[in-house]
Amino acid sequence: FLVAGRKMSSKRGVTVKDVPAASFIAAYAHYLKKSGKVQVPKWSDIVKTASFKELPPNNPDWYYIRAAAVARRVYIRAGVGVGSLKKVYGGKQNNGVRPSHRAYSSGSIARSVLHNLEKLGVIQLNPKGGRKITPTGQRDLDRIAQKIANPNPKTKKQLAAERTAAEAEATTTAEPSTAEAQEPREEGTPYNPNEIPQE
Questions:
Q1: What is the predicted pLDDT for the residue at 70?
Q2: Are 65 and 57 in contact (CB under 8 A)?
Q3: pTM score of the predicted model
């Protein structure tokens, strides 16, 4: 099948790096919301994601999307902390007629998301600094990536039925036709499969 514009072997396991970021983040955010294990802060519906923003997010599920995006970033690059997340989700401060300057995003949102992911067992503290993915978190994220790459996997029964049908078709094709089997032939005459029987 094709993943991210390139052909991959069905024997190789699909990871988070093999699927588009937007598709994975949307799927994992839906999974987090459906699980009900993420403790969304009470201020999530009124807070801005950064001081340079004018309005809060329009999407009511923005917290789950941010958590999914942070989990993917920690998966791909270990050592992510609050400071790096403030830079990643930062932007430009609009100073009117004066030049714009670099501004950081909210640190409390990044800290809240990291704590939630730690409680879920997706990430853990990295001895070298920041956070890193846990084996359980890596397995869960790869499982979601596998569902994105192969949304309708075939069961063992379906594969066995297809194998049986293929074997039956091959057996039927190999058997000679009734007319050829019943047609008497003279001794010493070689068999010609292209020969047209005489009526």
A1: 96
A2: no
A3: 0.71
CA 108 vs. chain centroid, Å, equals 28
Paired with 124 in beta bridges are: 132
Burial of 85: CB neighbours in 10 Å, binned 0-12, 13-18, 19+: buried
pLDDT, tens only, 29-50? 999 999 999 999 999 999 999 9
In this structure, are residues 122 and 114 in contact, taking their beta carbons and an 8 Å threshold? no
151 backbone dihedrals φ, ψ, rounded to 5°: -70, -25
- Given a contact cutoff of 8 angstroms between Cβ atoms, the answer to whether 76 and 16 are in contact is yes
Angle formed by the axes of helices 62-76 and 21-35, nearest 10° = 120
pLDDT at position 195:
61
